[in-house]
Amino acid sequence: MATLARLQARSTTLAHQYYYRNSVVDVFRKKENDAAVKIQSWFRGCQVRAHIRYLHRVATIIQKRWRGYLGRQHYQLIVKLAYYTMKMNLYNAMAVRIQRRWRGYKIRKYCFNYFYLKEYLKAVSETNDAVREALEEFAEMTEREEKKADLEREEKKRDYQARKMHYLLSTKQIPGIYNSPFRKDPDPWELRLQQAKPLTPRRPNVKAKHSVSLSSWLACTSTRSFPRSGTLPPVDRKRCQGPFRDVSEVWEQRYKPLEPTLRVAEPMDGLNEARAQLQRQEWTRNVNDNMFLPFSSYHKNKKYIPTMHLSSKYGPDAYGSQHFRDENPQKWICDKDFQTVLPSFDLFSKYGKLYSKAGQIV
Amino acid sequence: MSQRQVLQVFEQYQKARTQFVQMVAELATRPQNIETLQNAGVMSLLRPLLLDVVPTIQQTAALALGRLANYNDDLAEAVVKGNILPQLVYSLAEQNRFYKKAAAFVLRAVGKHSPQLAQAIVDCGALDTLVICLEDFDPGVKEAAAWALGYIARHNAELSQAVVDAGAIPLLVLCIQEPEIALKRIAASALSDIAKHSPELAQTVVDAGAIAHLAQMILNPDAKLKRQVLSALSQIAKHSVDLAEMVVEAEIFPAVLTCLKDKDEYVKKNASTLIREIAKHTPELSQLIVNTGGVAAMIDCIGSCKGNIKLPGIMMLGYVAAHSENLAMAVIISKGVPQLSVCLLEEPEDHIKAAAAWALGQIGRHTPEHARAVAVTNTLPVLLSLYMSTESSEDLQMKSKKAIKNILQKCTYLPALEPFLYDAPPNILKYVVGQFSKVLPHDSKARRLFVTSGGLKKIQEIKAEPGSLLQEYINGINNCYPEEIVRYYSPGYSDILLQRVDSYQPLTN
């Protein structure tokens, strides 16, 4: 109890002390608290910073590793690419080198081959020369042929001349004009004349057998048959004594062209004859005597349509065969009729061309 | 009245008719009689005689009509207007060969004048009967029919087409194969007239197999036939590459060249035309001609004839040279350039000169080597004088200018260029200076020569607009030389020197 008593005794002090102490503590409490907070904050700050630093360090390591890894990967890629480009460049360069060589070779060999071109041009010029020569030869040949033909023509002409002038040939007694005794050698013409055959004198042209066209009938009255210029009598010739006619009159009478009567000049059946002749000609030209006939007999049934111009309702040209010449077969003495021939008037056709008895022209 | 007297009247009438027709036919041969005949109304008198009973009179009447129609187109028109053609066409099919010949002659005489008259003949249906006449046995009838068809086809493509549609071509091709030269000649001429209008017509002629027969006749000795044959071939070949190749495939080649040596001028001309028509299509065909020596033969041919006959040859050289540089080189080594420059100098006519200038331009435009070959023959001054001359035609001036331009742009042969510095007009000077500016930087000898010959001085005297092409070239040349030399040759340099003398203050002590 003592203790209790002691304690009770002391309780006030204790209370005081307690209060005091508490108040002291209260006085310092804020400060201490602040200090503690400061210490703690500092410490904690240090701690956290250290931790963060640690974390940073670790993160850096991670990042380093990762970035290193990525970088290495990227580097690999770049290297690969670079290697690839380098390789490709090299390849390209090599390909260019090959292509260069090949193209050069090809062009030189096939397109612009200098030697080939030179050779080609040489060949062309050689062909040119050959062609020129050949053409020259050809031209010469044609010229030669022409000349030869000319010569032959000339020769023929001279032969004809020689035949015409054959009378100039020298005889045994008399030298001809080409064989002058004052010259050493006879003229070449002399020799030619010796070889030539004299031309036979020309016969007067017999009038060609009657021709179809009527123009030949007209021709016999033309001026051709009367020699006008050549045979005129000389002007100074004296007139012959006696009861003679004028010379020109006599000449005219003598060279008077043949003037047949119309009937003689142009036979009645001229047209028929011409037709017959045409038929004969056509027959001679035919390869085959029998006319070529079509295979079917269709054409036989076809009606003949005469040409528009030759047909009329008055019938084809019947004149002369039916109507104008009457036929009486009973009177015939052979199997066909005599041709009717109509004589012309002699007097008319000879009018003014004959002498009368008194010696005057009628 | 006895029978005889009656008959005599008829005889007399017949004789009078015959005589009349014959006299008219004879008179119609002389041009001075034609007008009198026309005024006397000969047409209306001849027309009934075409229907005469006597064949001789019919024929002679047709002959007289043909001669009249042949004379001028008025009379030909009178024949058409007189409705004579249907009669002729009708009887053309029916009558004998003499009449056919005469009728075809009338048709030819009418058809030759103008397309309208030819069309009138076609409208009468004459083509079918003419084609039937081509099948006639008598060569004279065939000839007359072919002649008439050719004259009708000659005018234009439609008429030709009408002739083709009538089926004339196979028969004409048969006519070529006949032995008669005259018939061959006229058939070839008709084919030529048909083929000349269009590629299709030419193709029809080719399809009938005409080329082989035509090609065979190139070596025929008859000159007139050769003319027609060559003309027909060239009319076929001119249209397209295919047709030209067909013609070439008929192996005409060495044979045609002999025609270039022919005596007849027109054979030469037609042969040259044929070769030209073939050469103009492709380089390959030109090459073929070069390989067979055609160029040399052509050059010889040009040398041996004159006037218009040269023209196709000159053009052929131009065409060949235009195709490629090798072909141009072939022309050069065949000695074509001297021949062309001779043509340029000696031909009196402008169009031939123009062709020669064009050909030279085509030869010289490929490479410097070609240009040099042209330049050394001294052609450039001639071309320049032709260009500058006031007497030359516009075409010639243009062609020579173009040729000069083509050649100068490739020419590096300076001795030939130098005269141009002195007498060329500015539009040509440009090219000359340009060539100098290209050559001089690379050739020291030429640089030296250029100064000593006075070229540099001349260059300094040229007044060019600043900034123009000419100025650029001049600067290029000036850059090849040291500055002093350029200044020394500049005009007015002596004055500047004298001024410096004036202004110089001598150092006086």
From TrEMBL, chain A:
GO terms for molecular function: calmodulin binding. It comes from the Eukaryota. Residues 117-159 form a coiled coil. Keywords: Calmodulin-binding, Coiled coil, Cytoplasm, Repeat. Pfam families: IQ. It is found in: Cytoplasm. One of its GO terms (biological process) is mitotic cell cycle. GO terms for cellular component: cytoplasm; spindle pole. This is Spermatogenesis-associated protein 17 isoform X1. It comes from Physeter macrocephalus (Sperm whale).
From TrEMBL, chain B:
One of its GO terms (cellular component) is microtubule. GO terms for biological process: epithelial cilium movement involved in extracellular fluid movement; filopodium assembly; neuron projection extension; sperm axoneme assembly. GO terms for molecular function: microtubule binding. The gene is SPAG6. Pfam families: Arm (PF00514). It is found in: Cell projection, Cilium, Flagellum; Cytoplasm, Cytoskeleton, Cilium axoneme. This is Sperm-associated antigen 6. Keywords: Cell projection, Cilium, Cilium biogenesis/degradation, Cytoplasm, Cytoskeleton, Flagellum, Microtubule, Repeat. Important for structural integrity of the central apparatus in the sperm tail and for flagellar motility. Its main location: other. Interacts with SPAG16 and SPAG17. It comes from Physeter macrocephalus (Sperm whale).
